[in-house]
Each structure stands twice: as C-alpha cells, then as structure tokens.
TrEMBL record:
Positions of region (Disordered): 209-235, 251-277
Root EC class: oxidoreductase
Lineage: Eukaryota, Metazoa, Chordata, Craniata, Vertebrata
Biased composition, class Low complexity, residue ranges: 258-269
Name of the protein: Protoporphyrinogen oxidase
Function: Catalyzes the 6-electron oxidation of protoporphyrinogen-IX to form protoporphyrin-IX.
Membership in a protein family: Belongs to the protoporphyrinogen/coproporphyrinogen oxidase family. Protoporphyrinogen oxidase subfamily.
Catalytic activity: protoporphyrinogen IX + 3 O2 = protoporphyrin IX + 3 H2O2
E.C. code: 1.3.3.4
Subcellular location: Mitochondrion inner membrane
C-alpha cells in the first residue's frame, strides 16, 4: 500500500511539493490540506471583465540558474508553457530600473561606462566603490547586517541608497536588521573566499555557482499564469493541531483524517490564511506538541512584515520613464517601498483598453506599523490615498485612477534577521535528532522568491523519496 504524505498549505511551495511528490515512479498518496478558500497563497491575480489583469503578489520569475530552469520545467510539464509571457533581456523592463531620490527618478547605472562616470543619485563614480571593495579587509564576524556589510565594503552612498532600496524591493525589509549571510549568501561567501566581494563573485560565477542570494527577488524576465489543479487530493483544513512522532504526519480538526502513516509530512509555508490572517510560522508553532517546544520557539523567532499592495489603472496616461519600475530608499520615504510599471513588462494584461496604464504601489513592509498602524486595521482609503499621492508626486500622474484595488498582506514576507542561519540550523538539527515526520519548506527558511520556494519543495521531496527525474 502506498504511503500517504500530507502537504500542509496550498501556496506555491505546497503546490510544488504536490507536483514533485506525484511525478516519481512510485508516488505516494498526496493529501493537500489548505485552510483557505483558494490555492496559490500570496500569488493572487484579479482579472477584470474587460480582460485587464492585476497582480497582488509576485508577478514573475527569473528563469536563470538551476532553480529557474526547474521552475520553467515544471511549468512545461503542467502544460502551461504557452501561458508564459517572456520579457527579453533587451526589453526596457529588463534593462531599466530606477531609484527615486531627492525628488527625482534616476536610472540605476549599468554597463562599464556608467561605472566610470558620476551618475546621480551618487556623488561620484561607482568605480571608487569597487576599488574600496578590492582594498577593504575581509570581515571576521559570523554574521553582519546587510547595511553594515555594504557600508564597510562599498561606502555609505551605496549602502544608504542602492542596497537599502534593493532590500526594500526584495524583502520589504530594513537592511539594518537583515542578515547578509542569510539574505545574500553569495556575497557573504565571496568576501570570505577572496577577501573581496567583486573577486569572489568572479570566482563563483566562473565556477557556475548559483548567482542569486537567499532573496532571489527582483524584476521578472518571464511570467507564467499557473492555473492547473495540484497533482493531489485537496481538502479544506482547520489549523493543524498536532504533529508528533507516533506516525501521524498531521491530525486536523473538523473531521479531517490523519495524514501519513509512514514517511514524512511535507508542510510548506502555508498560503494566505483565512480572516483573521495568521503568521504561518506562528500557527505551525502552536500546532506542535509540547515535546517540540524548542522547535516552536525557533519558529517564532523568524518574523515577517506586512505589505499593502495598491493596484491602479489610468486611461490615456503616460509614464515619464520606461522600465520595470522604481524603488524608494528608506531615507527618502519609509512608507513607500516602490512602484512597479506593470504595463511596461506585460502590456498584454491591459485588457480591452490597450492605452491604459497599470501600476502597482507597494507600501509598508518593515515600516508598516509606524506609517499606517496595525495592518489588520489599516483603512483601505488611507492606503489608496497614499498610493495616489506617490504616483502623482513621483510619476506626475494627476488624474484619479479609473480603477483601484487595495490589498493588505499581513505577515507575508519573512525577515532573515541577524542569526537567521543559526535558527535554521537549530531547526534542522532538532528535526533530525528527534526524527520528526516533518519537512519545513517555503519562504521562511532559505529564500523568499518563487523560485526559492519551488526549489525548497524539490529538495524536501528528494530527501523523502530520492532524486526526481
């Protein structure tokens, strides 16, 4: 009789786990347990009656590297290759990214020429930051904030403007609190190997090492609308109440039968919870038995931030620049993370009004509470007003939008703060030593991008069933 594996959470990590579990030569029975009314987790879209599409979460993937290739292979095997919207490398959405600093938009430097001359908002050529990195001594601490790392190696402007903005774009987080070792492990290892980030990166890339860091975020080069049913049995699930060593992978309330009688459960970082939203790791910690109190404590130490996503559509409007979008450093505006120019990358989603302009304004993150108060009580009108003001001030769009959608995603992006690598090591050691039938996957551990989540599912399933074809 085939074993049963319970997958807790129908977000992208859980759906990918179902996919990998079902594709082996001797697949187990897969039971997908999801508390919400929909699958997909933070990947959410709204399609208007006129065909316009508005994304409320991740909107693309980078197809580069092994993880990106695995994602595209999964999309192809699911019969969704024709649904991928490619964005070529020479497209403006791929080449042009902007920062909003001191009341103006500035294109991020690219190419050798831009590094040799002074390009605003930087006060001198970035070549000098590169020389600083080549001459600076290597760090000796086991972990360091991303800001401290960048300040030490590249100088204050790079740390305060460029690195700060990137961390807000990828993690919606504060680079002064985030761990460079966990968020950008390739940079951390590069310095330790060659004393210089630039020299170490050259060595890593020359050896074919994966380029992305733990975050793996950033502008998309390919986009897929995944609408297939998961390869497993789906059931609604009240919050899981226990996961012990007695062979039951998961015991659910509300009449849901026990999970695996043999093998491990493979919970993911669960999808967006039903109202009232709950931080997934907090819910998992509550579900663990008393003898796993140490594990529960470590899970609770991984925080997450909330993000308000405001979709806006304008008719007959034009952008002052063309690109993927722009980020805003925290010194400029803590509340506003950035604005994505959706219509530039994906004009196919403009709908019947081909001349319309779609934008997505990202608000809050690590600054949500100080800017807007409790995420559970934030007024949509306040968030919409703030988003419209940002579009008006930074992009010059004066008219009111013809369509707007406001979503607040509570505790949606995990934060890899200082010491995160130790927490994940402790979690892994506890699971191994106590032989718990539990595998932890998803954005809370080793990468927050869509590719990272899918990759974590693949690794967990391979540990359970062996290498996948």
């Amino acid at each position: 009789m085939a074993p049963t594996v319970a997958v807790v959470g129908g977000g992208i990590s859980g759906l990918a786990a179902c996919y990998y579990l079902a594709r082996g030569p001797h697949p187990p029975k897969v039971l997908l347990l999801e508390a919400g009314a929909r699958l997909g987790g933070w990947l959410q879209s709204t399609r208007a009656a006129d065909g316009a599409v508005f994304e409320h979460g991740p909107r693309g993937i980078r197809p580069g590297g092994a993880a990106g290739a695995d994602t595209l292979h999964m999309v192809s095997e699911l019969g969704l290759a024709d649904a991928v919207l490619p964005v070529p490398g020479d497209h403006p959405a791929s080449r042009n990214r902007f920062l909003y600093v001191a009341g103006a938009l500035h294109k991020l430097p690219s190419g050798l020429g831009a590094l040799l001359r002074t390009v605003p908002p930087f006060s001198r050529a970035l070549l000098w930051s590169g020389l600083r990195d080549l001459l600076a001594p290597a760090g000796t601490e086991p972990d360091e904030s991303i800001h401290a790392f960048a300040l030490r190696r590249f100088g204050r402007e790079v740390a305060d403007i460029a690195v700060d903005s990137v961390c807000r774009g990828v993690f919606a987080g504060d680079c002064r609190a985030l761990s460079v070792r966990s968020c950008f492990p390739l940079l951390f290892r590069a310095e330790r190997r060659r004393r210089s980030v630039l020299l170490g990166l050259g060595l890593a890339l020359g050896s074919g090492e994966r380029r992305g860091g733990g975050g793996g975020g950033g502008p998309a080069h390919a986009r897929s609308r995944v609408g297939a049913e998961p390869p497993g049995a789906g059931r609604a699930l009240e919050p899981v109440v226990a996961a012990g060593r007695d062979g039951d992978a998961a015991r659910g309330a509300g009449g849901v039968p026990a999970g695996a009688r043999s093998g491990a459960a493979v919970p993911s970082a669960p999808a967006q919870p039903p109202p009232p939203p709950r931080w997934p790791l907090g819910a998992l910690a509550e579900a663990l038995p008393a003898e796993a109190a140490v594990l529960a404590q470590e899970l609770r130490r991984i925080p997450a931030v909330s993000v308000a996503v405001v979709n806006l559509q304008y008719e007959g409007a034009a952008l002052p620049v063309t690109g993927f979008g722009h980020l805003v450093p925290s010194l400029e505006d803590g509340a506003l993370l950035g604005i994505v120019y959706d219509s530039v990358a994906f004009p196919q989603h403009n709908g019947a009004a081909a001349a319309s302009l779609r934008l997505t304004v990202m608000l809050g993150g690590a600054w949500f509470e100080q800017s807007f108060g409790d995420p559970a009580a934030a007024a949509p009108e306040l968030l919409l007003h703030r988003a419209q003001a940002a579009v008006r001030e930074q992009l010059g769009l004066e008219p009111a939008p013809t369509r707007s959608i406001v979503r607040v995603h509570q505790a949606c992006i995990p934060q890899y703060t200082l010491g995160h690598w130790q927490r994940t090591e402790h979690i892994g050691r506890f699971l191994a030593e106590h032989r718990l039938p539990l595998s932890l996957i998803g954005a809370s551990y080793s990468g927050v991008s869509v590719n990272d989540c899918i990759a974590s599912a693949k690794v967990a399933v391979e540990r359970l069933l062996g290498p996948q074809r």
